[in-house]
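Students often ask what a 'structure token' actually looks like in practice. Rather than answer in the abstract, let us consider Phosphomevalonate kinase, a protein of 172 residues. Its sequence is given first.
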Amino acid sequence: MLSKLALSFVVVRLSHPIKSYYASIHNLDLDALLSSSPYKEAYRREMVAWAEGQMKKDPYVFARQALENSLAQFSCCSPASTPDVILVSDARRPSDMDFFTEVCGRPNCIFIRITATEQVRIARGWHYTESIDDATTECGLDAFSDWDCRVENNLSSDGHKELLDQLTERIY
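Now compare that with the structural description of the same chain:
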């Protein structure tokens, strides 16, 4: 959608630097860690504990690295110095929201909460795992209330066009 509107954009994936560094220090398959595979699940608890330890030292360590990586990729592929839109696809913690608010300024951020019912998530293959699915990495933003809009990502896409139109108007 953004490219159709002639807006330059970059997608920032916050989990990528976590998984990339963890894979390199433990000699693991990064592609498998980035997937929703049983391989990732086998290392998930330890990886989360390690990442939480790193974030206790610096809460923005991975958000900063993810943004720097994405902007570096953007600058080598685009004549523009910075993208019109920075899309963060996987914010999980209040510190993620704080980082982008500080870096970009709150008026320049559009916080979108995307949810699906538990029934739909189960139909998509999700299985609840205690101490993983109730951890900060999965529900750290449940109490966050500063959302600009909320989207239900259930089976139907009805209403999504209206939301996209509203977001496009705000970005332009």
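One point worth highlighting: The beta strands are 9-12, 85-88, 112-115, 149-152. Ask yourself how you might have guessed this from the sequence alone, and why that guess would often be unreliable.
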